[in-house]
Amino acid sequence: MSKSFVFPGQGSQHTSMGKDLYDNHAVVRELFERANELLGFRITDVMFNGTDEDLRATRVTQPAVFLHSVAAFMVNTIEQPQMVAGHSLGEFSALVACGALAFEDALLLVSARAEAMQKACELQPGTMAAVLALPDEKVEEICNSITDDIVVAANFNCNGQIVISGTVSGIDKAIPLMKEAGAKRAIKLPVGGAFHSPLMQPAAEALGKAIEQTAFRQPVCPIYQNVCATPQTDPEHIRRNLLEQLTSPVRWTQTVNQMIADGANEFYEFGPGDVLKNLIRKINPEVTIG
Predict the structure, then answer these.
(1) Which of 166, 188, 210 represents a domain boundary (last residue)?
(2) pLDDT tens digit string along 236-265?
(3) With 90 as the cut, is the pLDDT of residue 186 above it?
(4) What angle do CA 15, 21, 24 make, to 5 degrees?
(5) In terms of residue numbers, what domain contains 51?
(6) How confident is the model at residue 12 (pLDDT cuts 50, 70, 90)?
(7) Domains: count for the chain
């Protein structure tokens, strides 16, 4: 069987995340203490003992999910995957898993990404909304019909589950149109910005400098990236796609389908929660979920 490892993104965090791994594995303790040093604050204290509000802080959320995912991968993997992919932020964990990025470099990029995204949100407030039970093409058609505001399809999570992103006024216009078109639900999400939309361009420009200064290596297996949903092994292509991810949609449905078409039939999720397992089951219930 062809094994594929997948890594979740922001929104998977919870209090005490990673503490069991820290308590039971010396290699994880070393990893987390190194993260405390690199970040300049004890992120482990927030992860293990912080409140939900603490975990939602910009400088904590993304590094915390990344750390948990990498730690889970380290202690639960006994063989090399044939393919990897990550959902949004999870792409950084996937890049570590396939050897394209060193852990330290990836952590610093994740931290820079979080700060850049927060600043972009402050420059141009935006929001997102979940749309259920409407074909992808219809969702995109409605988004494109709103020409006086920014509204785009941001996350293709699974068949019939899409997240749209844009200005607050644009999302407010799109929601009733989605419902009129037959969506079972169209509801705003409790997020602080229009992620994976053109409103993240300032973040892409800021993060671009850090990405350009980071060394990318040849991965040991293909990584299926959000921007293109196709296997990538060239370090320069990986670098470019990682930067474009901030302003482009997460093509998760297309990614999983392409991985399956390329031979993946066994998926393992590494990170807090089982969000991706559930999405993969909806995309193709015949694959094995480890």
Answers:
(1) 188
(2) 999 999 999 999 999 999 999 999 999 999
(3) yes
(4) 130
(5) 2-122+198-289
(6) low
(7) 2
CATH of the domain at 218: 3.40.366.10
Structure tokens at 70: 């990498």
> Are 178 and 139 spatial neighbours (Cβ–Cβ below 8 Å)?
yes
Place of tokens 């909806």: 282
Residue 174 sits in the same domain as residue 206: no
Annotated catalytic residues are: 88, 196
Same domain? 107 vs 41: yes
- Residues 61, 114: contact at Cβ < 8 Å? yes
- With a threshold of 0.70, does the pTM exceed it? yes
- pLDDT tens profile 15-47: 788 899 999 999 999 999 999 999 999 999 999
Residue 193 falls inside a structural domain: no
Query: How many angstroms separate the CA atoms of 84 and 93, rounded?
Result: 9
Q: Is the CB of residue 208 less than 8 Å from the CB of residue 247?
A: no
**CA nearest 164: which of 173, 154, 174?**
154
pLDDT of 1 > 70? The answer is no
- Under 8 Å between Cβ of 259 and 1: no
